[in-house]
Design a protein that fits this description.
By secondary structure, the protein is mainly beta. The chain has two helices and 16 strands. The strands form two sheets. Strands 1, 2, 3, 4, 5, 6, 7, 8, 9, 10, 13, 14, 15 and 16 form a 14-stranded mixed beta sheet that branches. The chain has a two-stranded antiparallel ribbon with strand order 11-12.
Length: about 210
């Protein structure tokens, strides 16, 4: 067991380059053979040891040349500029998979697939998400800007609702599926348009999903 215990209860908005549904969620190969993604989270309640993390936001920007499990990825982390030095250190330890059981969280799993981790960015993060409505907005000036919305039925124009349920996952239990648009400027540059987005309530600790 890790020496330092931690927990975060948060909401997330994620946009990647896969088609709606994202084959990666089903242990299948990514739609276009590679992965590019931006994930934003806002912590409702959380701690790392004695350090509280309530109200803080963070962003992950990722790129892999092939399927995630084949590695060779690169990532960048943006930490809420409001975080104290202790909170910055705590979040970076969580997000880089430290103080976590192997395979227990999405952060730890992703950390094993990266060959390059850029220097962390500390900046103001604009983040809004309504999980049930499948809507989100994420802006870090000069770094990334994106938004998400529901999938629309191509015949009727009505909002289409679909969910992914992963009982034994390492990120969420249920995610609402939508679509998103994202532009990143630095340190990893790419563009996503009308591609997979997920909106979920997150409750993780050093041992995985809190059930």
């Amino acid at each position: 067991m890790p020496d330092t215990k931690w927990t975060i209860k948060a909401q997330e908005f994620v946009n990647c380059n896969c088609a709606y549904g994202c084959p990666c969620q089903f242990d299948a190969l990514p739609t276009h053979g590679h992965c590019q993604a931006v994930a934003g989270m806002e912590i409702e309640k959380g701690f790392h040891g004695a350090t509280r993390l309530d109200g803080l936001k963070f962003v992950g920007i990722f790129r892999w040349p092939g399927p995630i499990h084949e590695g060779k990825g690169e990532a960048a982390v943006v930490i809420d500029v409001r975080a104290t030095p202790q909170q910055r250190e705590a979040l970076l330890r969580i997000l880089t998979g430290q103080d976590t059981e192997p395979g227990a969280t999405v952060f730890q799993v992703f950390s094993t697939t990266l060959e390059k981790l850029h220097e962390p960015i500390f900046a103001p993060i604009e983040f809004e998400v309504d999980v049930d409505a499948r809507k989100g907005r994420l802006v870090v000036a000069g770094v990334t800007e994106g938004h998400g919305q529901p999938i629309v039925n191509p015949v009727t124009g009505a909002e289409h609702r679909a969910r992914i349920d992963i009982p034994d996952g390492f990120e969420y239990t249920i995610a609402e599926v939508g679509r998103g648009w994202t532009q990143t400027q630095r340190p990893i540059k790419f563009s996503l348009a009308d591609s997979y987005a997920q909106f979920a309530h997150i409750h993780l600790c050093q041992s995985g999903i809190v059930r």
